[in-house]
Every structure is written in C-alpha cells, then in structure tokens.
Design a protein that fits this description.
Length: 393
C-alpha cells in the first residue's frame, strides 16, 4: 500500500475493496466458543458474549484499572489516561474494526475490555519489577495469564462457582490475543487450542491496543510537556504527514488543535490499514472460514509492511523520548523500589499479609501469592501499604 493510499484510506475504504468478510469468518453467538465451565441457561435477550462484557465491566478488577498507571501517574494531572480509560479506547477501536469487517463485535469488545485486567500497579515499570522479584523464585509474571487467574478464580461474585464463568471464546482470547503459548511449556492451558491461531476477533485486540496507545501517548506526552511538537514532527513521519495536511487546511488554528486533527487521522489511517491488510491476507491465504484462519501458519490480522514500519518508528520514538525520559524515569524508579520492598517484606514474613491466605500459600507458594496480592493493587493502595511498611521499620 502506497503512502498516497494510506491517506486515501482515511475513510476506511479503497475503491473496489470489500471490507466485510463472509459470515463464516465470525465467531458464532451460539457455537462451541460460547460454552462455559459451569453450564448456565441462555439469557432471554443477551448473547453469551454480551453477558461476558457485562461481567467484565462489573468486576472489581475492572474497576481497579481506574487507579492503575497507563504511562503517567496521577501526580501529573487527572487529564491523562489511566489503565481504565486506555482500555475503553481500545474497546471502541476494536469494536469499530470488528464491525467494519463483519466479525463478532460483542466478542471483540469483551476481549478489549478484559485485555489489560491482569496488569499490576505502576504500568510496565510495576510489571517488570514484579517479574524480576518472581524470577528469584524461579517464577515469572505474565499479565495475560494473571488475567486468566482473575476471571477464573479471584473474582468471586456468584454462589454456584468461583470466577466469572466467562465463555471459552473470551478465555481463549485472554490467553492468546497478544502472543502464542506452547503446550509443552504450558500444559495447564491445553483447553485453549494452543496448536491453532485465535479467531480474528482476538487477533485484532493487540493491534487495536497498538493503535490506541500509540496515538494516546503522543497526545498525553505533548500535553505533559515532555514531548515537543516540533521535534515530534521532525522525527515521526506517520504523524507529520497528517499534521502538514491539517496545517494547510486550518492555517489559523492553534497548533494544539491542528495536532489533535492530525492524531485523529493518524488513528483512522492505522485502523483502516489494519482492516485492508487483514482482508488482503485472508484473500491471499485462500481461507474461506474461521477454521481456515485457525489453521493458518501465521496470524492474519496485521498492518501493511509500510504502515508497520512507520508504526515501529513512532513506537521507538515514544520509547526513546517519553517512556525512558528523565521525568518518567523517576516514577519508574519509585515503582521498582515499592514493589521490591513489599514483595521482599511479605515473602519474608507472611504474617504481614491479610488473614485467610494460608491455604493458597500452602498450595501455590508464598512468592506467587504475594505477586497475586501486589498485582491486584491500585497505585495509591500500594503506595499506602509501602508507607505503612516504612513506618513499621
């Protein structure tokens, strides 16, 4: 796809290109992926995936996303994205893309809403610190697998079973939306078809996530003052092509508003490219239905080569100039210290943990239970726990 075509794809369609896939590619609302671990009667007017979406939204873990860092902690401003508002943006993008392609919108939305539910406090800095702490015990932290633990066990809202009793399709998507797992390494995941690709609805989630945070982080980064518009324009061609066009169209508008117009078009171009390239790859593959997608040697949801190159360039820019900036590094250092201190203290003295965890510690070990406890915390809660611990020393 050429650069001109990318700009022309702003409306989501190129001449002669059909976006909607045949219905056979969509996950059915009454197929095997709607099955649950504990049988439940069907709802009179809601599909299984609509019910999953509601269960996710009403869960405690989902609510806690409001208090978890996306990129900026709340010491900067309450204008910036939290993990929850980021999740909502991913859900909007995923549902739009799924709808344009004729896929199961409710499944895509449910997967988007749950995709970050396993993240610990402090964003990726907290996750890295927790993973490093577990490594000393021969363990690791994987937010996808932790999300599965949350929806299968930690959420306890029903009298008949633990967990949310989500459909097989949503649980498979939680596990596989962003990476593949081998059966040899993870025999406990055997029910999730590890030898097959996930449905397109799940494949789209990781890429919708990329679209959402790439555009949002430029927005928040510029608002914070860490990123400078002139520098972004000089080194991020994907953004500059739209900024230049909007600057010509709105020459008297403030740069901030021109930047907003450019970001919207950048997001739209990425979403349109994803739809068109995925549609193209399916056509080339010869797949005629969902089973063909599952049995394909590679995932079919993807950006075009040109868009992927520009996306990676933009992502590297964000890593170099925002995520690893001196300003944010102070927050990362604090996050690492807080997680390390509390993990070490609670592993050394389990009596400091809330009562009632003894059976879980006996069955899974103190390190995993402490990691589970920390992962469920919001930023403010873990900071409060750290202050209490410091005062006790």
């Amino acid at each position: 796809m050429t650069g001109a075509a990318l700009t022309g794809a702003e409306e989501g369609r190129e001449p002669g290109v059909a976006l909607t896939l045949p219905v056979a590619f969509a996950v059915s609302n009454d197929g095997p992926l709607t099955g649950r671990a504990y049988a439940e009667p069907p709802h009179s007017y809601r599909s299984a995936f609509q019910r999953d979406r509601a269960r996710i939204i009403h869960s405690r873990a989902f609510r806690r996303l409001a208090g978890k860092t996306q990129v900026f902690t709340d010491r900067y401003s309450d204008h910036f994205r939290s993990r929850l508002t980021h999740t909502m943006e991913v859900a909007q993008i995923a549902r739009t893309i799924a709808g344009a392609m004729g896929l199961n919108e409710d499944l895509a939305e449910a997967l988007a809403l749950v995709h970050d539910i396993g993240h610990p406090p402090f964003g990726h800095a907290g996750e890295s610190a927790l993973n490093e702490a577990l490594a000393a015990h021969g363990l690791s932290f994987d937010h996808n697998l932790h999300a599965l633990r949350i929806v299968e066990y930690f959420e306890h809202r029903y009298a008949a079973f633990r967990g949310l009793n989500l459909t097989l399709g949503v649980r498979e998507g939680i596990v596989k939306h962003s990476r593949d797992y081998s059966l040899a390494a993870h025999p406990e995941l055997s029910e999730y078809f590890l030898d097959l690709r996930p449905p397109l609805e799940a494949q789209l989630i990781d890429l919708a996530d990329e679209i959402a945070y790439t555009t949002a982080d430029f927005d928040d980064g510029l608002e914070s003052g860490i990123l400078q518009l002139s520098h972004v324009r000089a080194y991020v061609p994907l953004l500059e092509r739209f900024y230049s066009a909007m600057e010509q169209a709105h020459s008297s508008a403030p740069p901030k508003l021109i930047f907003n117009e450019a970001l919207k078009r950048m997001l739209n171009a990425m979403a349109s490219d994803l739809i068109l390239e995925t549609r193209r790859r399916i056509g080339v593959s010869g797949a005629v239905d969902l089973e063909g997608v599952r049995e394909a040697p590679n995932r079919m949801a993807a950006f075009s080569a040109e868009m992927e190159a520009m996306r990676l360039q933009a992502k590297r820019y964000l890593h170099d100039h925002l995520y690893n900036s001196e300003e944010l590094s102070r927050d990362h250092d604090q996050a690492t210290k807080v997680v390390r201190d509390l993990f070490g203290a609670w592993v050394a003295d389990p009596a400091l943990l809330p009562a009632g965890l003894e059976p879980a510690i006996e069955s899974e070990g103190i390190a995993r239970i402490v990691a589970d406890y920390i992962a469920g915390m919001t930023d403010n809660f873990i900071l409060a726990q750290h202050r209490v611990w410091i005062e006790s020393q």
